[in-house]
Design brief:
Blueprint lengths: L44 H6 L16 E5 L7 E7 L14 H17 L9 E5 L11 E5 L6 H6 L7 E3 H14 L1
Antiparallel strand pairs: 1-2, 2-4, 3-4, 3-5
């Protein structure tokens, strides 16, 4: 539930996913369609934010050159950050097993931003993605919320575990790994 404008979430996988970007430092525009990593979309608010074109959004320090971190404009917890790839990916449903390193970097960046902001109880954190069609912005983004124990009533619904509309980062990783094992 972040961003200033809506967008279609696109639930079909991309025709050509971008190649695995490996470790930190990768992040140039890749090939492929909307879900698989298509570089830059000037109509996408998160693409504009990741490229520094939205001066009202403060980018927070991030150790990975292919990711950016910033505060959610509608925080659901005292600490609510978004970790967003600079390359435009449609949503978490379009990811494939080759995107596991990307999701791992997003999770590491989320933990790091919490620690830099003096939040150290990593057992009281909720990290995850909205599952299509329940995406407010059609650009992959990881929600990092802490402390999870202080989520308000509405936030507990929006970022609910085991729901049709929200998947934890760990659940997504398991899904991608099982896809890898079956293919």
């Amino acid at each position: 539930m972040a961003g200033e404008e809506g967008g279609s979430s696109g639930s079909s996988p991309a025709a050509e996913p971008s190649p695995d970007t490996g470790g930190a430092g990768a992040g140039a525009a890749g090939g492929g369609e909307a879900g698989g990593g298509s570089g830059y979309d000037g109509k996408c608010i998160f693409c504009r934010i990741t490229h520094g074109e939205e001066p009202g959004t403060e980018l927070l320090p991030c150790e990975y050159e292919d990711l950016v971190c910033f505060r959610d404009i509608r925080p659901g917890a005292p600490h609510h950050y978004l970790v967003v790839p600079k390359i435009h990916f449609g949503n978490c449903k379009t990811l494939k097993s080759e995107h596991i390193p990307l999701v791992e970097r997003m999770m590491a960046a989320g933990k790091s931003i919490l620690q830099r902001n003096k939040f150290t109880d990593l057992n009281d954190v909720r990290m995850g993605f909205h599952w299509p069609p329940f995406c407010s912005i059609a650009h992959l983004h990881l929600h990092v919320l802490a402390p999870a124990s202080q989520l308000g009533f509405l936030s507990r619904m929006v970022y609910r575990l085991n729901s049709y509309w929200f998947i934890t980062a760990e659940q997504l990783m398991e899904r991608l790994k099982s896809e890898s094992a079956t293919s």
